[in-house]
UniProtKB/TrEMBL annotation:
Its EC number is 5.4.3.8. InterPro entries: Aminotrans_3, Aminotrans_3_PPA_site, PyrdxlP-dep_Trfase, PyrdxlP-dep_Trfase_major, PyrdxlP-dep_Trfase_small. Gene3D superfamilies: Aspartate Aminotransferase, domain 1, Type I PLP-dependent aspartate aminotransferase-like (Major domain). Its cofactor is pyridoxal 5'-phosphate. Keywords: Aminotransferase, Cytoplasm, Isomerase, Porphyrin biosynthesis, Pyridoxal phosphate, Transferase. GO terms for biological process: porphyrin-containing compound biosynthetic process. The keyword Zinc-finger does not apply. CDD domains: OAT_like. This is glutamate-1-semialdehyde 2,1-aminomutase.
Length: 433
C-alpha cells in the first residue's frame, strides 16, 4: 500500500493557482499523483514511489522517458540554435526528408506543435481543395480539442447516435457539419456519403481507435474507406497522432497497405518532445501558403523549433538503427499472452485487445468492433483494477477504456513483474467480486 502525502499537498497547492490543479482536463484523476522524476520505463512520484509506466503520457514515449540519445541530440541542437522565425533550418529539412522517406502518403510535410493543430490544418485544407464543408468522423475517435472534431468522443452511452458536442462554447455550424459514423461499418459510411453527396470534404479516422483502448479495423474496412473517399471526391485523412511511428516507422498506413490523402502525426514522432506534422500528396500540400501562391493559411511562431525537430530526428534515427519495433512488439505479445493465460486460469471474463506495443484488457466477453460495443466492458471493475495496480507500482491511467503503451526501455523483467502484479490484483478482486 503506497502513501502519497506530498502528492496530495502539491495537488492542493496547484488548485489554488489553476482550475482543478491540472493543465489538461483528463489528467484530473484519482489518486492525484504528482510525478517528479522519469527515467526509461519508470516514473517516480513526489513521495519517492516508483512505478513502471504504461501511461507513457498518452503515447509519446516509444523509446522511454528521458532517452539519453534523444536528450543528447536536443541538448546538442540547443547548444547552437533555437528558433529564428524566418526561412528554414537544417533540422527542419533533415526531418522533412526522413518523414517523406518513411511515411507512404507523405510526399510533402509541414510541422506544427500539437496533434490538434495538425488535424485542424488537414481539415481546412480538405475544405479548400474540395469546396465542400462537411466532415465525417467516427463515434469514439478523438482528433483534438477544436470545434471541427470535438463531438461524439467518449460519449455517455445514452448519447451515442445523438448530437453530442464535447464542450460548451462550440460553434453550431462546426458541430453540425461534422457527421458521425460507426467504426467498422462500411455500409453506414457509404449511406452517409450517399445522403450528403458532393458535400463531404474529408473523412478523418484513427486507423486504430486507440482513444478508446484498441479497436482493430476489420479486414477491408480501411481499404473500403479509401475507395469511398475516392468514389465520392472526399479526402481521406488518417489521424496517426497515436499510431504513427509507434506501430511502424511508416505509420499504420504502411502496415495496412492503405494510403490516405493526408496524414496527421505527433506523439511518438519525437518521444515526448512537442512537435506534430501534417503530410500528404504534394498537389494538396502546395495549397498551403508556405508555398508562394498557396491560399490555405499555415503559420505558428514555434513551428519547426530546434527542440522538437532535433528530438524527432533522433527518435526516427533510433527506429532506423535499432530494433525498436521488434522489441516493443515482442514485449506486447508477451504481455497479451501472459494476461490471457492469467485470465483463463482465474476464470475471469475478459478480452485482451491490442496491437504491437499497445494493449488493454476489456472486462467483457467478446472483441469490440465499435464504440457502442464498449458498453459491455465492466467499467467499475476496469477502473478499480487499474487503481489497485497503482498501489503495486504499475501505472496505467485509472480511467475507463484507456490503452497502455510499452516502450523500448521496458524489459522482459518489467513485463513479467507487471504480469505478477496483475495476477495478484485480479485474484484478489475475483475473490471479493
Ligand atoms: C488520434 C489523436 N489525434 C489528435 C490528438 C490531439 O493531439 P494533441 O493533444 O497533441 O493536440 C490526439 C491526442 O490525444 C490523438 O490521440
Amino acid at each position: 500500500m503506497k502513501n502519497y502525502p506530498e502528492s496530495l499537498r502539491l495537488y492542493e497547492e496547484a488548485k489554488l493557482y489553476s482550475p482543478g490543479g491540472v493543465h489538461t482536463s483528463i489528467r484530473n484523476v484519482e489518486p492525484h499523483l504528482i510525478f517528479t522524476r522519469a527515467e526509461g520505463a519508470y516514473v517516480y512520484d513526489a513521495d519517492g514511489n516508483r512505478y513502471i509506466d504504461y501511461q507513457a503520457a498518452f503515447g509519446p514515449f516509444i523509446l522511454g522517458h528521458n532517452h539519453p540519445y534523444v536528450n543528447g541530440k536536443v541538448i546538442e541542437a540547443l547548444g547552437r540554435t533555437d528558433l529564428f522565425g524566418v526561412g528554414t533550418t537544417d533540422l527542419e529539412i533533415e526531418l522533412a526528408k526522413k518523414i517523406t522517406k518513411h511515411v507512404p502518403s507523405a510526399e510533402q510535410v509541414l510541422f506544427c506543435n500539437s496533434g490538434s493543430e495538425a488535424t485542424y490544418h488537414a481539415i481546412r485544407l480538405s475544405r479548400a481543395i474540395t469546396g465542400a464543408k462537411k466532415l465525417i468522423k467516427f463515434q469514439g475517435c478523438y482528433h483534438g480539442w477544436h470545434d471541427y472534431v470535438a463531438r461524439n468522443m467518449l460519449s455517455a452511452w445514452d448519447k451515442i447516435g445523438t448530437r453530442d458536442p464535447g464542450s460548451a462554447g462550440m460553434m453550431d455550424e462546426a458541430i453540425d457539419n461534422t457527421l458521425i459514423c460507426t467504426f467498422n461499418d462500411l455500409e453506414n459510411v457509404e449511406e452517409t456519403f450517399r445522403q450528403n453527396k458532393g458535400e463531404i470534404a474529408a473523412l478523418i479516422v484513427e486507423p486504430i481507435p486507440h482513444n478508446v483502448g484498441c479497436i482493430l479495423p476489420q479486414p477491408g474496412f480501411l481499404a473500403g474507406l479509401r475507395q469511398l473517399c475516392t468514389d465520392y471526391g472526399a479526402l481521406l485523412i488518417f489521424d496517426e497522432v497515436i499510431t504513427g511511428f509507434r506501430h511502424d516507422i511508416g505509420g499504420f498506413q504502411k502496415v495496412a497497405g492503405v494510403t490516405p490523402d493526408l496524414t496527421t502525426m505527433g506523439k511518438a514522432m519525437a518521444n515526448g518532445f512537442p512537435i506534430a506534422a501534417v503530410a500528404g500528396k504534394k498537389r494538396y500540400m502546395q495549397r498551403f501558403n508556405t508555398q508562394p501562391g498557396g491560399d490555405v493559411w499555415f503559420a505558428g511562431t514555434y513551428n519547426g523549433h530546434a527542440v522538437g525537430t532535433a528530438a524527432s530526428i533522433a527518435t526516427i534515427e533510433m527506429m532506423e538503427n535499432e530494433p525498436v519495433h521488434e522489441h516493443v512488439f515482442r514485449l506486447g505479445d508477451r504481455m497479451r499472452g501472459g494476461l490471457r493465460e492469467i485470465l483463463d486460469r482465474l476464470g475471469i471474463e475478459a478480452y485482451v485487445a491490442g496491437f504491437g506495443s499497445v494493449w488493454t484488457t476489456y472486462f467483457m466477453g467478446f472483441e469490440p468492433k465499435h464504440y457502442a460495443d464498449l458498453q459491455h466492458n465492466d467499467a467499475e471493475f476496469y477502473v478499480a483494477y487499474r487503481k489497485k495496480l497503482i498501489e503495486r507500482g504499475i501505472f496505467k491511467m485509472p480511467m475507463n477504456i484507456k490503452r497502455n503503451s510499452i516502450g523500448y526501455s521496458h524489459t522482459e523483467q518489467d513485463i513479467d513483474d507487471t504480469l505478477e502484479a496483475m495476477e495478484a490484483v485480479l485474484k484478489d478482486m475475483k475473490n471479493k467480486h
